[in-house]
Structure formats: structure tokens, C-alpha cells
Amino acid sequence: MSTATMTLKLKIWRQADNTSKGSMKEYDLPGVSPDMSFLEMLDLLNENLVNSGNDPVAFDHDCREGICGMCSLMINGEAHGPQKLTTTCQLHMRSFKDGDTVVIEPFRAKAFPVHKDLMVDRSAFDEIIAAGGFISMNAGNAPDGNAIPIGKETADLAMDAAACIGCGACVASCENASAMLFTSAKLSQLALLPQGKAEAAERAQKMVKKMDELGFGNCTNAAECEASCPKGIELSNIARMNREFFKSSLSK
Amino acid sequence: MASNTCSTGICGYLCSSIGKKQLMGVTAFLLIGFLKTHLLGNLLILGGRDLFNDYAHKLISLGNILIVAEVILLAIFLIHLFLAIALVWQNKKARPVKYHSKKRTGRGATFASDTMPYTGVVILVFIVLHLLNFKYGTYYEYELNGVIVRDLYQTVIEYFSNPLYTAWYVIAMIVMGIHLSHGVQSAFQSVGFRHARYTPIIKKIGCALSAGLTIGFSALSIYGYYISTIN
């Protein structure tokens, strides 16, 4: 680790709790190494804040390996920052230059209330899953691996949909705070496979209804979600959900 | 939330986000179908006063059939309009606190997709004025093949003799083109059609169709202005 450190000007959303009114606060942060991850940079800021007797900035994080979906943040107006197919925890400070101003805000949606600072309650996603994002089966011995043959292409599509980590970048980047990319990925990973087909119609109805109820917006097919998704979930999942929902509306 | 009031069947479908979007898409397809027919009819202006007025007279002579068609067209348009209002209203409510800074990724949203409600309003204003200026515009009569018919050709040429009106017409058609350039591919996605191979082609056809309609209608308005200057 040899490179020189940078000094950044940070503009961060500070909000004491979910009922109080927040505002953007500015911080100068020297000593940022380009090898730090974005969250390590925030750790450094928080160390300074704690040492000077101030309240540290609250932000969501967990695995810091880009697979848990816990980290969030709108960085300079983009969900998970400027790098494609990258979560905030995997974004490194080498993406920024000395003297840069970095604006950091929480993911914004009516269905994603801010807990504190940059921490956002995304349990609305859990509610969508609980509404139908599962299969009902009797537990027991694992079935034989090749008992249900599934084509390679179908398996790949289901796997691609299953790559969704539920971080909420799709909602955050959507002009309408729509949760259709998330919901469609969770619906597709099951609807594509024989194990999920049995409950496909009921699932589509329940998940879409729950999504609407929670106050997410509608899709305008602008594809900002697809562009911001750290896992590359594709818009074709939303098209599949549109078909599944229409079919299920005819049968239900 | 709309979905609380009705949950099953056709009502549940129409109250849902996806149901509304799909109906938006279907009405969009029908309206585009009308636009294409309208442009083909307008092209008869190039054939001169008699040919165009003969076409207009044949349409008017349909009587009740024409009225039924007009009511259906109006219904399609109003469904598209009111669904748009409902969807935009819900979308605004879905993010009550705005971002301090928000950037387009450049890989998704376009100027056209961001401005759909605004271009839609311009088209609405245009349609109202359009009906007032032409369908309910100045009524001229003349004799064609021994029958007294409406001289719609005269109304059209008179309107476009004002260069400001022609300019407004062209601008409105460009706005319509922008609306359709996102609308066509969006409608396909809403009804659930997306395909790795065909979607890029649909996007190109959508843009070509938008450009074709814009250029077609605009060219005819400029032709109308030209005819008025040589008469």
C-alpha cells in the first residue's frame, strides 16, 4: 500500500431518527487511501467523529463481500456509486480523486423509511417474499438429483434471477421507486422451475398485490433499475412477471 | 392504496400496477394504429382538393358507424389519459422525499422516458386544438360531382397559411415522436414481450415508426403552408 492518501469533501444525510427532519451535513475527510473500500472510508470518518465526541454516521453493512445485500447508499446520485455491477462495499476509493466532493444519501422510497442517517428499513422486501416468494413442500429426504430434468437454459435463467441480493438499488434508482425488478426476480427464480410452477399463479397475484400495497411506484420501463443493479438482474424478469400476472389474473 | 378496495378478478387486475400498465400498453397500440390510418388518410391531401374532400365526405357519409368509431376512439384515449394520471400520481407518492443529487446512469432512462407525462400533456393540448381547428373548424362547402360536400381541404390550407400554426403543428408532432420513441418499446415490455433477439429490433422499429409519423404529419403541414403561398 504505497499510494498517497486523498482528502475528500463529504456531504452526508444526517437524520437523528425516523421521526425527525434530516439535512445534508458537510465533512472534510483527510487520509483516505485509494485502497480503502467505500465503507472503510466511512469507518474512518466515524472514527474521527467518535474521537471528537460526535455521533457517528449510521449506515447499513454486513458481509462486505458484495453478497448479502445489506449495504446501500446513493453515492453522487447513483445507487451503489459510479461502478457498474458493484455493491457499495465492493466500491473502492480509487474510483474517486483527491479533492472530490462525494454526496452520500440513503435509498429513498415511501416503502423504505429512514431509520437513522443512511440506515434504511427495507423490510418491505421481506413482506413481498412472505406474501408468496416461496414454495410449499413437505420436508424430508432430499429428492434424487436427476429426478426432475431441467433444461440448461431454464436453469441458467432461474439462476440469473436468483442472483438478486435484495439490496433495493432497483427501488432507489427508479424514478418511481418501483420494486418490480426485485419482485420479478424473486418470482422468476421460482416460476421458471417445475418446483415453483405449481403455485405460480397464486404467487404472482400475492406478490404483486403486496408490492402495490406497500406503496412502491409503477414501472415506466426506463431500465434505470437494470443499469443500477449490482447483480445484473435483467428487465426480462419484469416482462416475465407481467406475463405471469396476466395469466394468473385470468385463472384466479 | 387502490388495491385495498378490490382484490380479485378483473377489478383486482385493473387496480394493480401491472394491470394498469398493460392497459396503458394496449391502448397505446390502438392509438398508434389510429395514427397510422390518420396519416394515410392525410396523404390524400397530396392528391388535391377533390380527392381529399371525396375521402372526407365518404367518412362523414358513414353516419352512425363513424360516430360509434369516434366514441370508441375517444374511450381508448380517455382510458390512456386517466390511467396515466393515476400512475403518475402513484409514482409521485412513492418517493415523498426527493434526492439531493440524482444522476441518470446513462444505461437506462432517456430524455423520452423521463418526460412521458409532459410530452403527454402537450399531445393532449394539441389534440383538443386540433379537433377545434379542423373537425369543428370553419365549415366551407363546395360542389363535388354534383353533390354539396364539406370543403375540408380549404379549412386545412387556410389553417396552415399561418406560419405560426404550421410551426406549432410541427413542434407538436416532434413532441409526439419523442413520446412514441419510448412508448412503443415500453408498451411491448408492459404486455410482457421481451426477447434477447427481438427487443432490440422492436426498439428500432419503434423509433422508425415515431420518426415516420412525425415526419409524415409535419411534411403534410409544411406542404399545406406551401400550397397556401402559391394560391
Description of the molecule:
The complex is a heterodimer of chains A (252) and B (231). Chain A is an alpha+beta fold and 252 residues long. Chain A folds into two domains: 6-46 and 56-115, Ubiquitin-like (UB roll); 122-251, Alpha-helical ferredoxin (Fumarate Reductase Iron-sulfur Protein, Chain B, domain 2). In chain A, 36% of the residues lie in helices and 13% in strands. Chain A has nine helices and seven strands; from the N terminus they run E-E-H-E-E-E-E-E-H-H-H-H-H-H-H-H. In chain A, a hairpin with a 2-residue loop joins strand 6 and strand 7 (119-120). In chain A, helix 3 (152-162) runs antiparallel to helix 5. Chain A is elongated. The mean pLDDT of chain A is 96. Chain B is mainly alpha-helical and 231 residues long. Chain B has one domain (21-84, 115-230). Chain B is 75% helix and 3% strand. Chain B is built from ten helices and two strands, in the order αααααααββααα. Chain B is globular and about 65 Å long. Classes of the chains: A alpha+beta (252), B mainly alpha (231). At the A-B interface, helix 7, helix 8 and helix 9 of A face helix 1, helix 2, helix 3, helix 5 and helix 9 of B.
